Amino acid sequence: GGWGLNQSYRLALNSNFLQAKIAARGSEQNFKNVLLATKLFSGPLETGDFTRLLAAGENLSLGAGHLAEAGGEGQKLGAAIFGQEPTDLNESLTSIKLSISMAEEELAQVEAQKIQLPFLQDQLTKALSLRQKLTKIKNFLPNFPWLLGFDNPRTYLVLLENNFMLTPTQRLIL
Fold this sequence. Notes:
The chain has helices at residues 2-13, 17-41, 48-81, 89-112, 121-140, 144-148. The protein is an all-alpha fold.
């Protein structure tokens, strides 16, 4: 399961979202199988922390799959914005928001497991940080069509400054 999560992560970094989603689903299935075997062949006292760890792995795999779906939709959205591929922009944004919400829920499940293993604390901290960032992205998405001017054309002024100069915007000081 852990190998599949790592593979999904590397594929997503290379913008290969379909393969990342497949790797995440395979990882999820591996965690489910091990969790089921653990419950079937172990006593109730032996499975506590290990079962929570496997459940967290399954949640992380599901979250990775949802994020890969969001990445794939983001690619389609980018292509549509630049006129390379016709896409219903509202449908793409809705799909991205849904995938992000589902990933956020899976990360909340990981947090609920309250895993206290020292060797995993860095990874768990990163997962919780990712959850907070996903919340911000999800809250920003409704503003995206307005910013890009889907309803009306927009004109933006982009002003670059040099903070190391006395007059960063090149104004004269008299």
